[in-house]
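Entry 14. Ran structure prediction on the chain below.
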Amino acid sequence: MAVAPLRTHKDPHRAAVHGVHSLDRFVFTVPDLDEAARFYDAFGLETRRDGDRLDLHTAGHPQTWGSLYQAAGNKKLQYLSFGCFAEDFEPIAARLERLGIARCQPHPLGDAGGIWVKHPDGFAVQIVVAPKSSPDAKSGPLVEAPVPIGTGASLNRARIPKVRPRRLAHALLFSPDVERAIHFYEDVLGLRLSDRSADLVVFMHGVHGSDHHLIAMAKSEGPGLHHLSWDVGNIDEVGRGMEQMYAAGYVRGWGVGRHVLGSNYFYYARDPWGSHSEYSFDIDYVPGNFEWQAGDHPPEDSFYAWGPAVPADFVTNFEIQGG
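Output, structure tokens:
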């Protein structure tokens, strides 16, 4: 299903607020692009191979959400690109100048566009003018046709269609210094804190309207990518996605369950490199004209409201410990 044209200008009532609006693209390397294509095809993404690059898309959406390249060794996050409105680009650049944030050379896998800076955790960050790919309203449920009386509501297994995520929801990163990372996202990119549990896990949203988090961080010994989250149409699609990955041979994961912070229903499918892709439905939304009151929550409320036991290695950072 095609989406409406993406917004390219900020709302007038946010004229004085300058910050990125979307996680425009993620880029990481993996040891085997063919295996990456198999995993993400099974997950329901559209994979497009271009030489030594694998691009990830969702059905009917114009955005290229991320790119993977092949490189020896562990999976590794290379850089993140954040999109901003044209009206915000120069104010963000001026803020970097005031803060004394030095620009860096473009990443070898990136392009020369926009502004390049170094995240304090060591990876590159690009800021570019781009259409707003984060949502402008809370994602609604998939509307399904009513079922006639006397007919079962569930399809039989042979007729269940493949789950195909609608868009990227967020990325959760590992960080060795969560407080330092928070300040980077606030001061440099203009993101705002949504919720946290001390420095165990932190969630941040965009100032022009976004899901409860477009970036999240978890405490670790080093940087890395824990998971990519993908929006689907209902909790049935979350469960069907789990079954879809089982059928494809990807049987390690976590869920189905429901988070407390963000409130979304989830299933995490573990990829071949020890990180995850999440089917997510019904995450909380922070409008651009609303000041979300961030909370610091106890650990027991930072993870999930219900679901199966968490796998022992779910928060292991395999980028620094090996797959």
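The radius of gyration is 19 Å. Will compare against last week's run tomorrow.
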